[in-house]
Design a protein that fits this description.
Blueprint (H helix, E strand, L loop, with lengths): L7 H21 L9 E8 L13 E2 H15 E14 L2 E12 L5 E14 L2 E8 L2 H7 L17
Parallel strand pairs: 1-6
Antiparallel strand pairs: 1-2, 3-4, 4-5, 5-6
Length: 158
């Protein structure tokens, strides 16, 4: 049985992509309204390979998301995340992000192009964010791997 007859599921899916795009747009402008489409009980799961001091394995709610972002801003000055590509996976949206900044302690410029953010949406609200340091891995996790991934290492054929 189809839950959304006709184009309804595609329309919801496109809406989810636009919701996530709006979150990043608000984030880039430091607009507190970016929290509007984020569920108050959101769960944020940083990649376990994010091993800098103070990083938690899970952040809950708006306060938790704010703490997670603060941990990033505490580690990097001039930090910004840009959406390089955005992929629709139904109730999930995958953003392939480029992250830039400068290490606060070292002053070394940072350019990261391997990160993917998996957003899970329910009823027009972001309820979960999984941060993944491997774009291919993230896309496989949501069943998307048919398109080339910008910034992913080339596959070796032998």
């Amino acid at each position: 049985m189809e839950l959304f007859p006709g184009d309804r599921s595609r329309a919801v899916s496109r809406e989810n992509v636009e919701i996530v795009r709006g979150i990043y747009d608000g984030w880039s402008r430091n607009d507190p309204e970016m929290m509007g489409p984020i569920d108050p009980a959101i769960e944020v799961y940083p990649d376990p390979r994010s091993a800098w001091p103070g990083i938690e394995s899970c952040y809950r709610g708006h306060e938790g998301l704010a703490r997670y972002l603060a941990s990033i801003y505490d580690a990097f000055s001039e930090y910004r995340a840009e959406v390089e590509d955005i992929r629709d996976a139904g109730d999930q949206v995958v953003t392939l992000a480029i992250e830039r900044g400068r290490g606060k302690q070292s002053g070394v410029p940072v350019y990261i192009r391997h990160t993917a953010h998996i957003w899970t949406l329910r009823d027009g609200r972001a309820v979960r964010l999984d941060v993944n340091w491997d774009r291919d891995e993230a896309l496989r996790a949501v069943g998307l791997r048919e398109q080339p991934v910008p910034g992913a290492p080339a596959e070796r054929r032998g």
